[in-house]
Amino acid sequence: MKSFRKELWFNTSKRREYLNITPQVQDCLRESGIREGLCLVNAMHITASVFINDDERGLHQDFERWLEKLAPEKPHSQYAHNGFEDNADAHLKRQIMGREVVVAITDGKLDLGHWEQIFYGEYDGMRRKRVLVKIIGE
Q: What Cα–Cα distance (Å) separates residue 98 from each residue in 2, 27, 33, 75, 138?
């Protein structure tokens, strides 16, 4: 069995943003040479997430509205965590959206459903953060 590891780095221009990282993960898979196995993609920061969903702008706006209702950014004083930092809402949003995804690899391709894409969700952005891609298989 082979193992491949690569870090992808992102620096969003906004505090909250959704990036389709499927092409970068596909590049990792090609680079790995693995044809059958599993691909783990996970956010290496506690205020970011990786998830699978449809790449549809309206849906992304719905995520934003829904998450803001569940864990509003302001007022910052509503959170015990906020003091030195003002990102408690980002921690909560990450818990909701998830840390990682695992995708099957079949015949050298990510085995995703028809509309499925891999996303990096940023909830406390405008600084450099990384995503780990770990691929194992043959």
A: 27, 23, 28, 24, 28
* Selection from 34, 24, 41 nearest residue 136 by Cα: 34
Measured distance CA(46)–CA(124) in Å, rounded:
9
**Does domain 2-137 fall into CATH 2.60.120.460?**
yes
CA dist 57 and 40 (Å) reads: 25
Least Cα distance to 125 among 79, 64, 81, 70 occurs for 64
Neighbours of 9 (CB within 10 A): 9
**pTM for the whole thing?**
0.96
Give the closest residue to 119 by CA, choosing from 73, 66, 64.
Answer: 64
What tens digit of pLDDT does each residue of 22-74 get? 999 999 999 999 999 999 999 999 999 999 999 999 999 999 999 999 999 99
Which tokens is 113 given? 């459903």
